Amino acid sequence: MDKNFYKIIYRVAVLGFMAALSACNSDALTDLNNDPNRINYVIPGYLFTQIELNMPQQRIALQQGMQYVATYKDVPDIGGKQFDYIPGFTYAIYSSQFNAIKQCMDALTSPADVNKIALCRIIRAYGYHILTDATGDVPYSDASQALNNVLKPKYDTQQAIYTDMLKELDEAAASLTAAQPTFGSADVFYNGDITKWKKFAYTLMLRLSMRLSNKDAATAKKYALIAINGGVMSETTDIAYLKYSATSTNPRAPYTEYQAVQDPDNAQGQKLSSTLINQFKTTRDPRTYVLSVVWTKTGSTYVADTTMASQKGMVPGSILGYPADFPTYSEFSPIWWNRDTSPLIVLGPAEAQLLIAEAVLRGWYTGTTEKAAYDLAVTRAMQQWALWPNVPSLSPNNSTISQQRITDYLTTGYPYKTNGTFEERLEQISTQKWLSLLGDDHEVWSNWRRTGYPRFNFKNWQGNQAYPGSVTGGEMFRRLPYPDERATNNENQQAALARQGFPLDPSIKAQSDALLGRVWWDKP
């Protein structure tokens, strides 16, 4: 729920309490209620650490929609009966992390805080682009202003939000300087490394600029060139990622919260989709050995089979009840999934180089070739798996992909289609992004909405029909609905819905229109 609501309740309660006690000895009450152990000031470094740890963890929820995994409808706690969307989840970032960023920035008042302020601006843009991409227009300029009596924030247009986010990234990156301090060890991404933060800012700028490619090509090209010339990620050492400990519970690796593999005897979970496995096998993708496994049972022992030939994907949306051959389908390898120590990549060079490849494809940038950028992106995408700890039982296949396997993939497996049509090359770049950004479901979803690639088939029930009970008639949803703010900010929310052409009625009968509505940059 929006924290503005809590602040309203808090203010009303405090005012009523003060009025009731107006005749009491206020000095005595103050002395009585001051907790000597309570911290009554903001420590920016602590807040920034919390923001970094929590902001990226909102991205994993669309693995079935983006056809990484599939299952049957009646599986307990996983199937269709459990997939009711909770609108408030979308605003989890907005209701907590943006308020923390505002508090952090308000506490940074010294001229020497220029780097810390810049990092707050950068990560604020990171969080807001996830939110607006998912829902459309959102409170932005008025957000997190409850203490300034802005209790009913207006909804800014997505176009205005994108304009400001790109400006913020440009200004923040330019303001970073080695002459002033940073958050240091409180920065869990980069330990205060300004050079890496510049690359983060420009890589994010390149992502956002490309989002506008079909809506405002001039602005997209302008900021794409600023980003590329400013310097985006190119090395594995540039990767921004969260590291987790096996003993940590808050936060813990998000993969443990969305387990597709509870144990080798995965009788009631998800399996890898035929879309993913077919892509792996057709192109002889060496990531197969890192990500995919079929468990075979011998007596009471389960043995991991990671051979390419044994991998088998489930067709998404094609099975209602438990299939007899369910155990024979591939599932995520324990190298990646169900590991307390699995890292979470926030932003990396694989995406940056694929975005450069697309910029070259569109004729915006001439400093490299599409193939060179594509090859570097694929190389970095495969090298990034070395961040994951090995699983001895899966040896000789482990998280490190050899250079020979990478070279073979780029030359005979899935080489860049230099002589292909524009659409063929865009499809290959986008498909590679789908493969490379596993774990960043929201970004893959946004890129799919923008480009239409990879090609997903969402109507696989009995051949070519929508899955029984599908609210959207077998179409992938294109946005997430707002939480119901009729009691707190109804006028502004209704205005935003009307402006975007989304249904005003929050009831179930309007779900299809709400889910299939397109945000600004996604509209033809």
Q: What does this entry look like structurally?
A:
- This is SusD/RagB family nutrient-binding outer membrane lipoprotein.
- InterPro entries: SusD-like_2, TPR-like_helical_dom_sf.
- It comes from Dyadobacter helix.
- Keywords: Signal.
- This protein has 524 residues and is mainly alpha-helical.
- The chain has a domain at 255-332.
- The protein has 18 helices and nine strands.
- The protein has helices spanning 3-20, 26-33, 44-54, 87-90, 92-107, 114-135, 158-175, 194-211, 217-230, 274-283, 288-291, 349-361, 370-383, 403-413, 422-436, 441-451, 490-500, 511-516; strands at residues 69-70, 138-139, 155-156, 240-242, 271-272, 292-298, 301-305, 331-332, 344-347.
- The protein has a three-stranded antiparallel sheet.
- α6 (114-135) packs parallel to α8 and α8 (194-211) runs antiparallel to α9.
- The longest helix is centred in the N-terminal third of the chain and has 22 residues, at 114-135.
Write the layout of secondary structure elements.
Layout: H1 3-20, H2 26-33, H3 44-54, E1 69-70, H4 87-90, H5 92-107, H6 114-135, E2 138-139, E3 155-156, H7 158-175, H8 194-211, H9 217-230, E4 240-242, E5 271-272, H10 274-283, H11 288-291, E6 292-298, E7 301-305, E8 331-332, E9 344-347, H12 349-361, H13 370-383, H14 403-413, H15 422-436, H16 441-451, H17 490-500, H18 511-516
Antiparallel strand pairs: 1-5, 2-3, 4-9, 6-7, 6-8
Helix pairs in contact: 3-5, 5-6, 6-7, 6-8, 7-8, 8-9, 8-12, 12-13, 12-15, 13-14, 15-16
